Amino acid sequence: MARRIAFLNYKGGVGKTSLVINLACCLAQQGARVLLCDLDTQSNASIWLLRLERWNRIISGEDGAGTTFRLFQPNPPPISDLIMRDVVQDRDGRPILPGLDIIPTGFNLVDLESDYIGQPGRPAYVHFREELAKVEGDYDFVLFDCPPNVLRASQCGVFSAHDIYVPANPDALSLIGFTLLAEKLAAFQDFSAGFRRHSFGPVAQIQGIIFNAIKGNTDVEVPKMRMQLRLNQFKTTRRVARSAKIFAARVRDATVVRRAVTLGLPVPLVSSESGADADGIVGDYHAVARELHQHTLTLPS
Questions:
Q1: How many Å apart are CA 27 and CA 286, to the nearest integer?
Q2: Distance between CA 195 and CA 120 in Å, rounded?
Q3: What does the alpha-carbon distance between residue 121 and residue 135 come to, in Å, rounded to a whole number?
Q4: Least confident window among 41-55, 110-124, 138-152, 287-301
Q5: Cystine design at 180: which of 3, 10, 231, 253 (Cβ 3.0–4.6 Å)?
């Protein structure tokens, strides 16, 4: 059964999408089958991996069955039709990272907040969870790239996930974002509890904080100490899992990440093409991926 993981922080700009994409790449390189669900209306993950021209063809209906929002429109296609398989391709359209698939999104996902009607007593997140169940057996990991809020699109990922991990920068704003996130998640989990069926699995909890995009000469230890204090407080009030932790592995900032975006490739593939270690950031991503995998193995399913 796939391990379903949501990545979310109430503070934007923490490098969440770059972390999710490169963790997905590392997991696929380790032999895992990975489905990335882009639930962020900014569509950064979709545009990055599909490249702009291909993404434009998808949202215009020229290629594929559409984007995430099609699931919530009348006469939706099967969710399997929305999956872009082996999404990472070279310039000639040949797959170069087998095992990494994506359900892409477009800017119209924002309309989920106002246009979705659905059936009475069946919120969007229940519908999404039911659809995801039809394909999750094909994967080892399903990763949700969620926007920095707990509105309908994020709710789909949170309600469907086993675990929630919080990308963060070592700064005060990330601490504030984490605090707000824990409060909003608690309210959503209470509200949605009546819609949860046994087959959906247990309620997702925050299981970890991952420091990301750390700039050179940044003092990480003081922000880490403050984040750990807040994490301990939330453990006491049960707003995070007892097993929640700050990851030992962390990701540094590097210019190769910006280059990877323009090339439409995850960072490890850019590095392998150039023959360089990209200042060690590839090792950072692989270390976080290994720690994530090991941590999930200790958690209940």
A1: 8
A2: 12
A3: 24
A4: 110-124
A5: 10
User: What is the dihedral angle through the alpha carbons of 112, 10, 146, 152, rounded to the nearest 10 degrees?
Assistant: -20
Tokens representing 279 are 């200042």
> Which residue from 148, 284, 261 is spatially nearest to 210, judged by alpha carbons?
284
Q: What are phi and psi of 3, to 5 degrees?
A: -90, 120
Position 184: which residue type?
Answer: K
Closest alpha carbon to 168 in 5, 10, 44, 22: 10
DSSP string, 216-244: TT---HHHHHHHHHHHHHHHHTTSS-TT-
The partner residues of 301 in beta bridges, in order of sequence, read none
Q: How far apart are CA 45 and CA 265, in angstroms?
A: 11
* The overall pTM is greater than 0.70: yes
CA distances from 7 to 62, 64, 150, 187, 278 (A): 30, 26, 12, 18, 24
Task: Find the helix or strand (DSSP H, E) in which 25 lies.
Answer: helix 16-29
Residue 64 has which token pair?
A: 């594929």
pLDDT, tens digit (0-9, with 9 covering 90-100), for 211-253: 999 998 999 999 999 999 999 999 999 999 999 999 999 999 9
3-state secondary structure of 254: coil
φ and ψ of 205, to 5 deg: -125, 155
Structure tokens at 255: 């210019």
Q: Which residue from 247, 244, 219 is spatially nearest to 233, judged by alpha carbons?
A: 244
